[in-house]
Amino acid sequence: MNKPKMTTEKGVPSNSRVVMLLGQLERMNGEAVPGDAEMARHVTGKILHLIQTQEKTKKEMTAKGSSGMEVILAALENMQDLQTVLNILCILNELVSVGGGNRVGVLVSKGGTAILLQLLLSASKDVPPSEELMLQLHSILAKVGPKDKKFGVKARVNGALNITVNLLKQNLQNQKLLLPCLQVLRVYSSNKANSRRAVDRTYVPALLTIYQDWHRNDTRHRHAHIRKGILGCIRNVTNIKLGRKAFLDADGMRILYSTSTECLPVRTLDPLVNTSSLIMRKCFPKNRLPVPTIKSVFQYRLPHVPAEGPVAQLYRQPPEVDDVVDESDDNDDADTENDTENEEDDRDCCLQNDDIETDLNKLRPGEQASRTMEELRMYERFFSELSEDFQGYHFHGSSPCQTPSLPSKSLSRIVVPTAPDMTPSDSNLVQLECADRALDQRPGEGLEQALVRELGRVALDGGAAPNGQRPAAESEVEREDDCSSHSSGDQAVLEVPDTAALLPLHDPELYVEMVKDTRSVPQYSEVAYPDYFGHIAPTYREHIVERLYGVQRSKIFQDIERMIHPNDILDKVVYDLDLQSCPVVDDGECLKFNSLFESGNLRKAVQVRKFEYDLILNSDINSNHYHQWFYFEVSSMRAGTPYRFNIINCEKSNSQFNYGMQVLMYSVREAINGRPCWVRTGTDICYYKNHFSRSSIAAGGQKGKSYYTMTFTVTFQHKDDVCYFAYHYPYTYSTLKMHLQKLEALRTPQIYLRQDVLCETLGGNSCPLLTITAMPQSTSNDQICQFRNRPYVFLTARVHPGETNASWVMKGTLEFLMGTGPVAQSLREAYIFKIVPMLNPDGVVNGNHRCSLSGEDLNRQWQRPNPDLHPTIFHAKGLLQYLSALQRVPLVYCDYHGHSRKKNVFMYGCSIKETVWQTDVNATSSDLHEDLGYRTLPKILSQIAPAFSMASCSFVVEKSKESTARVVVWREIGVQKSYTMESTLCGCDQGKYKGLQIGTRELEEMGAQFCVALLRLKRLSSPLEVRHASHFLEAEGDLIETSCRNTSSTTYVLKEDEPSFMEEVDYSAESDEETDPQENPGDEEHLSDSEAVQQHPFT
Ligand SMILES: [Zn+2]
């Protein structure tokens, strides 16, 4: 009477057929003596029949609260009759497949594993064991194993492991039984101790032999599952170091390489190729990056070294320490260098939910001990607009066309001795002269030589380049002079492009002048031709390229071939900054490289095969990593031949190069032919983890990390061209200085433009500061008052040197602000703009990706900038603190950035409410009573700027960002509308530019639209002048109501917005397992939480 009853959930009729049968079975379980075998067979057979024919029966038995599973397991433990046991196993097999395998967990939690393993043990004692029983048992164990963390241990302890292995050995040709056995074996081998045992017993070569055997005999590919099962075991065993060694010793690389090559033509065998390639990549012996140190080639001694942090570590590191590889890397047997690596080194993108700021004190406005008014008075000179009374200035009134007497000189300009003279006086003199200059190219002479001969002045000191490359080229020209040029009369005449006519802000002569004052650590003496000629955005559309299936795989196979056929590899160093005299191999058999110019950063080039080069990027100065940005020159190429380039020391775990982004190329020959443009180029582009090991020093203490390869293939159009490659459209510091000087020429009497030097950088470059607003209409009190009281808009850009797109957006903003149209004029009348267009000139000049010369990310220094180490940040913040002290807190602050992993243009802002929503923090209602004004500007932008996407914006404050400009300006200065504006490096996936890669035209347009949006923002607060809170809020409220409703309120970004690869041979794990849901135990649970949050932020 007290026995547990079959309980059922509501909705399940307790008198249903299956419940009755289970009740019967339960009674039989309870009987002391096993009862009638016939009866048990009958009952279990009936249940099986019901389950197989009625979906609802499965659900009933596995529903919450149902004890069906327990009854079945109890029966399995009790019953001896073979047929009954088989019936029960079939029932279990059916049950565990309900809901995509979710019921397996129930079976495990009810102790099913032990019962099944015990059954396996006793069944193995029968001679011979029942094949059907073994088959059923293994197929269910294959499903149960991955859900039971202790499965591998349990199986080893109870002896089941050996039974499976023996069974496997005896049934190598038995395809029916082999598959489930392999599947179980694979689960066993996911346990490290089991894997070690497998290695000890020489199972690795055995498995390889079996694999080859099946590969050879399964000519019709009917048993690909078995072959994959074998690979699955190998893959697990090679997760441990011993396993990888055994694999290499057994010639595994060659075996899997040749079998895969044979499988390649058959698309249905892709899973085999993919798994093979995964194993081969894992086992590929780690190579040393061919550099003496990972520290930058160029040294810059800091005035003082920060007490802590990566720079301090770098300085403390004894010179004899090998920082390229870890010493102990090889005997680290317990290591987990496997393919389930879930790494994250880009905190920008994938931060954990626990990065959300939960300390309300850090979300509330608060000023960190600010500098006193006395200390801030040094900034008064940058705000002469606040005291200017314009007495003695003749307003245009009657003769608007007259040149004003005001420009720059009448305003007290602060000139730092090293600052370039930014007076516009000579702008008339620098008329472009190169328009008619012809370039004579002599027969047999490469373009490079001709350029050097004719435009030698582009190298600042007449071609005496430090690496000796230029002089070599020149002497060669002379030799050719002697022998050939007299005999041949006809010379190709090339026109040098008149880019000035097309590019109003560009002037090659002026550019060279600017370069002369630019200080670089390597003391560059050359100028890259693209920066000299300028860039005109191409008129055609550049589509985001569709990734072809199998590209990554074929690249990886080519890399593996290096190991299989070492004799085919040239390994010829053709460029090397680490050597005093950079080798210049000019045997006509290889490309020539160069990168010794502003923003260049190629460290080394190695010719691997005839048309393939490994490239290594230089680290940021005073750092040992940050490799992403690149800019270098290539010459001596053949036309029509595909060249493969591999940048082999990339660090991020993923890249937009995997999602349709192409590299940028600039051809000097095309420029000379009238097309001076950076164009998107490259085929077979992909980004993947490679076999070059990254030392723990370079990987933030983590061992066993690898670098990543960014590979692209280019077929040059012209022979002997000079081409440049870049990560994104270059924009050097000298370019900025040139643009700023040309900007002066756009001044009209209506424009108030002042250029100051905010400060000098560590490297001795000046950091420009611009003030732009409208001139007052007269010197009347009212006008002067209106002039002085305009709200400030504070803009900064290019704190991160590798984000050149930020500079192009800034260029668009500046040009718009200097425009003559009515919108520009209204905008100037509405605000005073304070702009620091390049917060990190040194980083830009020296080809850094992320840091300044101090080796630090300047956008993490805003809380406590050091005046010596971070002068531009210290003083930019000083300007804001000064304004704050004057009660003139800017209305808007925006810092322009580039984003390497997302598409479109979008903003990050700061909202206490939206941050708190993401956490469980209990906030008082006063904290949550927040003006929604921070959403207005991005909202307007999403309406008017085609590249802008509201859906990508986020207003959540993260801990890791607490020292960024945006957060500090929001919290300490009190600017509610404080933003980071991120522009994609790749392209857009929405709006008018959907499917297109972004170019300078779109970026500049974005900068202009930002201005237009500011005017709209102003108008939303009109007609009454600024700060009419009620009006303001209503208008904004409406705006948000009308268009914000339907879109998601905030995407909690931070997760990449890319779909997974079509081709998933990826380092990111077991991803080729689409056919095997039981892979990756535990992963589903792990992911579901965070995914739910990210997809439905407010549910
Ligand atoms: Zn940035």
Automatic annotation (TrEMBL):
Residues 729-1018 form the Peptidase M14 domain. InterPro entries: ARM-like, ARM-type_fold, CBPC1/4, Cytosolic_carboxypeptidase, Pepdidase_M14_N, Peptidase_M14. Keywords: Carboxypeptidase, Cytoplasm, Hydrolase, Metal-binding, Metalloprotease, Mitochondrion, Nucleus, Protease, Zinc. Its cofactor is Zn(2+). Its EC number is 3.4.17.24. It catalyses: (L-glutamyl)(n+1)-gamma-L-glutamyl-L-glutamyl-[protein] + H2O = (L-glutamyl)(n)-gamma-L-glutamyl-L-glutamyl-[protein] + L-glutamate; C-terminal L-alpha-aminoacyl-L-glutamyl-L-glutamyl-[tubulin] + H2O = C-terminal L-alpha-aminoacyl-L-glutamyl-[tubulin] + L-glutamate. It is found in: Cytoplasm, Cytosol; Mitochondrion; Nucleus. GO terms for cellular component: cytosol; mitochondrion; nucleus. GO terms for biological process: proteolysis. PROSITE patterns: PEPTIDASE_M14 (PS52035). The keyword Zinc applies. SUPFAM superfamilies: ARM repeat, Zn-dependent exopeptidases. Pfam families: Pepdidase_M14_N, Peptidase_M14, TPR_CCP1_N. One of its GO terms (molecular function) is metallocarboxypeptidase activity. Residues 321-347, 1059-1077 have a biased composition (Acidic residues). The keyword Protease applies. The active site is at 982 (proton donor/acceptor). Residues 321-371, 461-491, 1056-1099 are annotated as: Disordered. Its main location: cytoplasm. PANTHER family: CYTOSOLIC CARBOXYPEPTIDASE, CYTOSOLIC CARBOXYPEPTIDASE 1. Belongs to the peptidase M14 family. This is Cytosolic carboxypeptidase 1. It comes from Paramormyrops kingsleyae.
